[in-house]
């Protein structure tokens, strides 16, 4: 079933009607050997050029890696490319998918910033070694798409949530929906600090999501509330400064999240999740945290 949904009035299915999607068993991470802040392409990077503590960043990255491994996932480590300081944010170069036949497919990104565009062919080479079927957007028609920064699978169901506005063109989702044969619910983003969907929307399990509500238009919020039974809201300071919504729940139970997002962590615990705090402060300077430091795949 392929369709694009951008209005709750056009939502003609219940979650239970959609086919199930298996839980990803692998986590790809790109080592931060070349991580630094050399340019400004999002508001969080302002005033941070040259300010990354590389040793601290490496320790923090290893802590995140170990947190994923502790949930039983297989962590695959890749070396980052030289002069590609943002390649560590490996949620952005692609959108992987496991089709109903168990085949592996991937939509490769077209990065918004020329600084980041050379990351994509390096990740594409890795997919070729993994026997993924690669799909490419036509850059003439669809100028930008930033992978899982904006396109997020609904846990357990063949449904994609697609953010657009800053780093992804809305039209990308027509191609993706038709190519992968899945419905896509699009969500407009309108606050520049919340430039990727993963900065304000964290799908935890089939019924639960963590969001920063002000990052969405009223119609987007209606769509989120109509498909998730439990909507946990992060307060502004935690969403903004602690990247609270850039967390990840790899197994439906543990939530790996930046430390110090007190109210969010409390709400997650009350909802029955186990909170695993990590420190990603060096990466937050660049506009990313746990979610975008990895890519879940099959
Ligand atoms: N500095 C990177 C950029 O602006 C950070 C990317 C963070 N990724 C994410 N999915 N939020 O592109």
From TrEMBL:
GO BP term (any one): L-arginine deiminase pathway
Domain of life: Bacteria
Keyword annotations: Hydrolase
Pathway this chain belongs to: Amino-acid degradation; L-arginine degradation via ADI pathway; carbamoyl phosphate from L-arginine: step 1/2
Enzyme kind, highest EC tier: hydrolase
Entry's Gene Ontology molecular function annotations: arginine deiminase activity
Enzymatic reactions: L-arginine + H2O = L-citrulline + NH4(+)
Entry EC number(s): 3.5.3.6
Protein name: arginine deiminase
């Amino acid at each position: 079933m392929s369709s694009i949904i951008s209005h709750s009035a056009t939502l003609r299915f219940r979650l239970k009607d959609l086919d199930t999607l298996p839980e990803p068993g692998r986590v790809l991470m790109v080592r931060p050997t070349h991580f630094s802040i050399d340019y400004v392409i999002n508001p969080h990077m302002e005033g941070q050029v040259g300010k990354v503590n590389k040793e601290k960043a490496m320790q923090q990255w290893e802590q995140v890696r170990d947190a994923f491994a502790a949930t039983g996932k297989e962590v695959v480590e890749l070396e980052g490319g030289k002069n590609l300081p943002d390649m560590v944010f490996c949620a952005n170069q692609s959108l992987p998918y496991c089709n109903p036949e168990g085949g592996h497919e991937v939509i490769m990104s077209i990065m918004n910033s020329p600084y980041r565009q050379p990351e994509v062919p390096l990740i594409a080479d890795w997919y070729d070694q993994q026997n993924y079927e690669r799909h490419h957007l036509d850059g003439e028609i669809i100028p930008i798409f930033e992978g899982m920064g904006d396109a997020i699978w609904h846990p357990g169901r063949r449904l994609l949530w697609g953010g657009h506005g800053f780093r992804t063109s809305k039209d990308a989702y027509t191609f993706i929906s038709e190519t992968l044969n899945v419905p896509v619910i699009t969500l407009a983003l309108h606050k520049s600090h919340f430039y990727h969907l993963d900065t304000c929307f964290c799908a935890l399990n089939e019924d639960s999501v963590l969001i920063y509500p002000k990052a969405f238009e009223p119609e987007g919020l209606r769509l989120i509330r109509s498909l998730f039974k439990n909507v946990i809201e992060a307060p502004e300071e935690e969403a903004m400064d602690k990247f609270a919504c850039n967390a990840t729940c790899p197994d439906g139970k543990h939530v790996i999240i930046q430390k110090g997002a007190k109210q969010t962590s409390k709400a997650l615990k009350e909802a029955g999740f186990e909170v695993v705090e990590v420190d990603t402060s060096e990466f937050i300077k660049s506009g990313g945290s746990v979610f975008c430091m990895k890519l879940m795949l099959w």
